[in-house]
Task: structure prediction
Amino acid sequence: MSNKNFPQYINNRRTADKGVTFVKTIIENEFDWIFRPTHQEDDFGIDGFFDIIKEDNSVTGKYLGTQIKTGESYFKTKKSYGWVFNGENKHLNYYLNLNFPVIIVIVNLEHKKAYWAEFNIEKTTKTTTGWSMIIPESNILDFNSKEIFENLAGETIDYMSQIEYKWELSEKIKSHEVVVLNISKKEIENQDVSGFLKLLDKLTSDEDMINKTRGKITFLIDGYNDDTRELYQISEVKEWFKKVLPTFKYWSYFLNMEEYVHKIAGLRVLQACVVDLISLEKDLENEVFQLQFDKEQSIELMTKLLDWLNEFCDKYSISEIINKEQTDLVVLTLLGFDPKTRMK
Result:
């Protein structure tokens, strides 16, 4: 019977498979980790993964990728402290874009030993056919490599305390009538609006959170108490508000616009910092300042806020009734009249 009538298990494939099996045995028997081989059709330069398992059998989520090369050809070129490994250029970008360490392993089946090196672009050299790096003879793949690999993969963090805190915070946000955000002077100086991106993620985390946080949020700027200027007169504060305005977007839904709040914080402060001030008059009777803002800019701001409100309501299936209620509050806060009264 001719062997041409059957698929062939060629020697190169047999050798490569033996090398992978050899490494798998070390990882599973000496490290007590999991070795996950890559299916041949999915092999683009990574032959498998070392999943790190702690002594208490915790599967950490940390892992390393590996490329495994087996055979005498990988031990031909010897330097003073190791062997020259030659790689293809197509793998360089691939390795550099991976978010886990890559371990290059060469296997000598005859001597039943494997040697390794972490792929590090700084340790590569350009060659006529691609690139090369040294696999140190001292880097024997055995139990002594385990701690090194754990360090390469990075610290394993138990996030449960942080998760419990986040869940507790979410429940507090839902249950409190008003949630006051304290914006630090450092955030203003660094033009840092990342806190509002995180806040938006939290406020839109689920339907219950969205329903229970409507009209709850307000904010105060901290760190300028000794500054004689008003917030709307401080350029860095104005720039920060102009940056955060389109970042958070859904002010019209989440901001508390009750009169006792917006007089000192919230939407009126936002307006004062992104819209030009036309006049500033002191009300002698009530001993407060009356601010007059550019009307066209105020209408432009209101239009943005209401467009974002419509977008939000469409995205999260908020009723038209709620949309209308929030719209009326925005108009009342920014323009000073109640649309419901005007309609009457």
